[in-house]
């Protein structure tokens, strides 16, 4: 299994000239920066079903409550070809172990949200669709985190999405030789602080769900998949500073009795400053990390919260 998380991405976002008009839509932080820490699989569904560059732009059209993928310019219907390809590719990507998919926005094929949906004669349009390939991929793989590339321009969205990818990658590694009750409980215990900092209600629900589903006799593989599906759904919403600060206080509580008054004050002020938006998340975490090392407290649960993404990605200075 890859040491870096494998992430699929719309090929145009990493600089491939595959858009219908041949223009580039490269997102350089991904293609030039984060790509060192992720194994990217670029995919252009339209090219893979045999379309060429240049080509007429595709549109989503609603006809009798069914969505079709057609070209406005010459009315060619690609729906069946795209559906067949999407099912095969979505299955393949899940079995290849992708930990996420970064989609190009505003595309009738790849867009995740607010994609234009036209009526049959193109006289009316609503912005409430999802691209055809993205629809199939998310329906087949509700446990795999997805996002539109445009959102990654926002530092908080980027950090949160990359944390979801690494959470998924941890889960994948934990279950690589098969799931059993102990492994599922251990994974949950090792990610409690991570979940507390990003989806606190779901942390409690997941703990109860594991016990209930084993009582019901469900298979461990099924429970592990349900666990990740529920967790990723809750993690769709970007976390808030207050949740992160609250979790920092929980971690601080594990060593605060070993600090003198001035040292305590320093940690408390930095957490407060972060909560108020005056200092980045990295500021209190650097100090907390120093004391965790000094008092030998850095267990997996704490580490998953303190380092949700590899520190070399340098994201915590921006959020
Ligand atoms: S949005 Fe999707 S289909 Fe369109 S060029 Fe990019 S990868 Fe290809």
Descriptive key words:
alpha/beta, 319 residues, 13% strand, 13 helices, 4-stranded parallel beta sheet, 2 domains, binds iron/sulfur cluster
Write a concise synopsis of the structure shown.
With 319 residues, the protein is α/β, with parallel strands linked by helices.
Q: How would you explain this protein's 3D organization?
A:
The protein has two domains: 6-153, no CATH class; 171-319, no CATH class. The chain is of the alpha/beta class. The chain is 47% helix and 13% strand. The longest helix is centred in the middle third of the chain and has 20 residues, at 155-174. The model has no long low-confidence stretch (mean pLDDT 95). The protein has a four-stranded parallel beta sheet with strand order 2-1-5-8. Strands 4-3-6-7 form a four-stranded mixed beta sheet, with no helix packed on it. Bound molecules: iron/sulfur cluster. Iron/sulfur cluster binds next to helix 2.
Major pleated sheet: 4 strands, parallel
Low-confidence stretches: none
CA-based gyration radius: 22 Å
Percentage beta strand = 5-15%
Question: Counting H and I runs of at least 4 residues, what is the number of helices?
Answer: 13
The class by helix and strand makeup works out as alpha/beta
**How far apart, in Å, are the first and last alpha carbons?**
31 Å
What is the tally of beta strands?
A: 8
The total domain count is 2
Ligand kinds: iron/sulfur cluster
- Helix residue percentage: 40-55%
Provide the fold topology.
Layout: E1 6-10, H1 28-33, E2 39-43, H2 45-48, E3 58-63, E4 66-71, H3 79-95, E5 98-103, E6 115-118, E7 125-129, H4 132-140, E8 146-148, H5 155-174, H6 181-190, H7 192-198, H8 200-215, H9 220-234, H10 241-252, H11 261-275, H12 282-294, H13 300-306
Parallel strand pairs: 1-2, 1-5, 3-6, 5-8
Antiparallel strand pairs: 3-4, 6-7
Helix pairs in contact: 3-4, 6-8, 7-8, 7-10, 7-13, 8-9, 10-11, 11-12
